[in-house]
Amino acid sequence: MRILTVDPGIRATGLAEHTGRKLTKAELIRPTDSTRYAPSPGFDGPDLPAIEAVCELAAQWLIWRVRLLDYPPVSVIAFEWPTVYGDASEREEDPNDLLLLTAINLGILGHLRQAGITLPARLVLARLWTKGTPKRIRQARYLSKITPAEKAILDAIKPAGLRHNTIDAANMGRVVTDALG
Predict the structure, then answer these.
(1) In the predicted model, what is the mean pLDDT of residues 19-46?
(2) pLDDT by residue (tens digit) across 69-105?
(3) How far is CA 144 from each of CA 5, 25, 75, 131, 138, rounded to the nearest angstrom?
(4) Mean pLDDT of the chain
(5) What's the Cα-to-Cα distance from 149 to each of 41, 71, 72, rounded to whole Å?
């Protein structure tokens, strides 16, 4: 079984591919310099070209991975589905940022469908794969369980400060693979 996973991000989106339980490929998608995330002049919302760029680049990577003929076929593409938990007023982050993550997921999915990719898509609630464990602890546990070859795939992701997006995609991929059997 081969699965692809997406951890959407406003500034960077993490992508991962698993064949069985093994991480085989990972990528970090960022807007180009000309479309970096920035508020739109005169408006409160983010710059749409940055969101479009992330969606298109992520979809291109996923389409390329799906269409590889010498690999086992992809069974599913799993997207982390953003959810606000608890009292939004007590959060450090703006819960409205989650709307952008939803837009990124749907934009990627739209590009995939437009390209004729009709694989099943799964929307995975963060709480189901993270089990409420803080990111730092969750990522340390995941990194302690993977092989040196898998760690090398993740270590190659640059810049290191945004690598956490790809680590989350890889970690979610492992959980989804285990759940699908």
Answers:
(1) 71
(2) 778 899 999 999 988 766 656 666 677 778 889 999 9
(3) 20, 18, 27, 18, 10
(4) 87
(5) 45, 18, 20
Dihedral sign of CA atoms 107, 108, 112, 115 in order: positive
Q: What is the dihedral of CA 37, 88, 167, 115, to 10 degrees?
A: -60
Contact 78, 168 (CB under 8 A): no
* The amino acid at 119: L
More confident residue, 137 or 46: 137
Q: Give dist(CA 4, CA 169) in Å, integer.
A: 9
CB contact at 8 A, 138 and 130: yes
